Amino acid sequence: MIEVLWLGRGGQGAFTAAKLLGAAYTIDDDNRYALAFPSFGPERRGAPVRAFTKLDTKPVVDRSQTEKADYIVIIDDTLYTPQLQGFLKPTGKIIVNSKNDIDGTITFDAESLAAEFRLPTANSVMFGLLVGISDVVTSNEAVEAIKGYMPAKIQERNINALLKAVQEVAE
Amino acid sequence: MSRKFLSGNEAFAEGIRLASPQVISAYPITPQTIVVERLSEMVEDGSLKAEYVHVESEHSALSCAIGASAAGARAFTATSSQGLLYMAECLYYAAGGRFPIVMMNADRSTALPWNIYGDQRDSLSQLDSGWIQSYAENAQEALDLALMSYKIAEDKRVQTPYMANLDGFVLTHTYETVDIPEREQADKFLPPYETDNRIDFENPKNMAFSAGPDTNYIFKYKEHKGILAAAEVISETENEFAEIFGRHYTGLTENYRTEDADYIIVTLGSIAGLCRETADKLRENGVKAGVVRIRYMRPFPNKEIADVLGNVRAYAVLEKDISFGNEGTVFTNVNSALKKAGVDVKGYNFIGGLGGRNISAGDIENIITGIANGTENVNFIGIGGEDNGK
Fold this sequence. Notes:
The complex is a heterodimer. Chain A is α/β, with parallel strands linked by helices. Chain A has five helices and six strands. Chain A starts with a strand and ends with a helix. By secondary structure, chain B is α/β, with parallel strands linked by helices. In chain B, strand 15 and strand 16 form a beta hairpin. Strand 2 of chain A pairs antiparallel with strand 8 (about 175-180) of chain B, so a sheet runs across the interface.
């Protein structure tokens, strides 16, 4: 099972990204299964939000919160703490949206890339970075998920931002 | 059939759309809100032809559904936690009036301390209200139960309202892939509601009347017989469902690796999957573990439970509930089933997940270790034994 932990603040779309990853993984394959869920509770703008995506080739029945993740994707770098390394599997990676380098993580200025596509939040860019770095889903599957589950008027900008992000880390 | 990545609430709403209720009355409450929001969107876009009534409280939500049902309409409402408790008075009216309303309840803790997260103390407190109670494990089962619920509730032998429980957040807010049946298949499975138990100007009769000491008990006896009859109707409905939709369900309980099990966890709702996975893991280490998932708390699976627990060394009942001053209510019900069947096996109660607290795989392993070695009768996961039986 591949487990992804998403960290963001309310309004940054961490849970949307978690859902899109689950939808992308299962979109064209009856033998793939996914669960996506937020850190449960009231939604408040600006408050820290955790979201989880679990991917497997058999039904995912463990609905408990991820204790060891393959990837931790952080949309807001103020949420990074060194303790997060303890939530990683040995081969796990942390991807952070940040203009600065952070020890033990892969950082990328997703904010600026999102701005190029007039996106107020960097969640699609972070999704793209995860796709590029991890290959957990293909770019095509990610694009199909956006087409299936995002409002029509913002699909194109998000797809373009995602594809650009995949390209950036592939280079 | 189409496949979509949906939450438990959204999947349930899809099932209700296919069941075509004519009246929906609801008051929003976390974590139920999404189901009634989706249904209002479906009414708005015309894909569900129902009268959607915005009411001012849960008490009114169920009262409105009772009125609609008394007019011969298929009615739906949904609630959670304090909302369910606020409409408690009406639960008994719906059951006593034999109105086959379907209600989704998003299982959530009860105040105080105030908490919006999932546990099962709300619905289990209403076991005596005369409603059928199901507990779904995942979003697909939630959708399928939404469709099956009306067929069971409206059956002439049953005529009993149906409360479909979904664990708050862990099920209502978790997204997974769900198969959505086609409209034609759903219509074939569930024909429109027809009943004599309604206001009819051509054939006027007294409804929702009073009954004194000389006759009241007969109505209560018939109410009891109606909900008991649901067991067989559930089984028939599941067979018909499997023929049309290809998905199979197993009646009041679902057993997993129980045939040769030494230790069994009896539980309900969305935690069952993790229990099964833990049982697999323990079996790799030579511990013969199994799981019984209770799918229906009413009618209660007395025989099914007694049959499966007869040969174990010990069993645990894991539930998100406590009846203060005694033990978990599911434990009480399970023990009664065994006592009636003359089964004498040691059982232990594990209370977990109150107020939404995470139950981990390690917690479940500890339950099996606990019952293998012996522990207190009643155990609070993460705290310890609180034994009132000594």
